[in-house]
Amino acid sequence: MPELPEVETIVRGLNQAIIGRKIKSIDILVDKLFIGNKNSVINSKIIEVKRLGKTILIYFENNYLLHIHLKMTGQLIFVNKNQQFKIKNLKLKIPPTIKIVGGGHPDKKYDQPLPHKYTHIIIKFTDESTLFYNDLRKFGWMKILDSRIKNLESRFGIDALSEKLNSNYLSSKLSKRNITTKQALLDQSIISGIGNIYSDEILFCARILPDKKVGKLKPSEINNIVNFIPIVLNKSIDLGGTSRSDYLKIDGSRGNYLKYAYVYGRENEKCRVCNTKIKRIKIGQRSSHFCTNCQK
Ligand SMILES: [Zn+2]
């Protein structure tokens, strides 16, 4: 599952690639992955691409939008026939005159000419460039929505990088809940965009044990969580996201965040701050990595 930094990286790539373009046709090869009337967005200019939590919003001039969730294994690849093809660390057999932008889950099975058997939606633009949606497991989706709907954000919880995410908001959402702090960070109806990797990293920086019940959090600890969420996520965006979570950057290269992770994926390795061995436990169904010395 991509987390916020990986989706943000893809959205920035799409903003460079598809603004101002118009869709000529949409080929839907697997019906269940596309919801709504595709004709709503044909021939209307794309004006903006935004991220909401872990989802992608493509806005059209005619007040429709295309809402995309890549889920576990989705991948968006933009190919512009007129530009130079540049891709690192990924051996795609594509003619060298084609440019690729986009990103998502990489897999050896995807390393073949596009479209291939895992390509389920093909969006062709009027200038002959193409956006391919590939998905090994077919859990992702695209939905046509009216861009004027008001409750889109409330359906997804406040975005982890939204200014509305402050201590008052988080305290009110956590009051009377009997869950661990790790579970609270993963709950997309509370904060949208944080997954397993960044919840571990945020809790390390905030010096809070992942299994601490939210009812036991002091106001200063809630402040710490709120303060470290943007610090950790923005650092990862700067590094191009993670590679372990298998997300590609715009140019197809892998993100670098995990090289710098404090605790995630570092079981039995030494804490970067105090040298204590990093521990891993399961909370709910999810692995949680932490330092018993640094986190209380
Ligand atoms: Zn430590």
Description of the molecule:
This protein is of the alpha+beta class. It has two domains: 151 residues, N-terminal domain of MutM-like DNA repair proteins (Alpha-Beta Barrel); 133 residues, Helicase, Ruva Protein, domain 3. Helix content is 23%, strand content 25%. Strands 1-8-9-6-7 form a five-stranded antiparallel beta sheet. A five-stranded mixed beta sheet has the order 2-10-5-4-3, covered by helices on one side. A two-stranded parallel sheet has the order 11-12. Strand 3 and strand 4 form a beta hairpin. Helix 1 crosses helix 6 and helix 5 packs across helix 6. The longest helix is centred in the C-terminal third of the chain and has 20 residues. The chain is globular and about 60 Å long. It binds zinc ion (ZN).
Note the overall shape: globular
Uncertain stretches: 83-100, 243-253
Q: For the residues shown, what is the average pLDDT?
A: 85
- CATH domain class name of the largest domain: Alpha Beta
State the strand order across the main sheet: 1-8-9-6-7
Tally of individual helices: 7
Count structural domains. Answer: 2
Taking all Cα atoms into account, the compactness measure Rg is 20 Å
Main beta sheet: 5 strands, antiparallel
Strand content of the residues, in percent? 15-25%
CATH superfamily of the largest domain: MutM-like, N-terminal
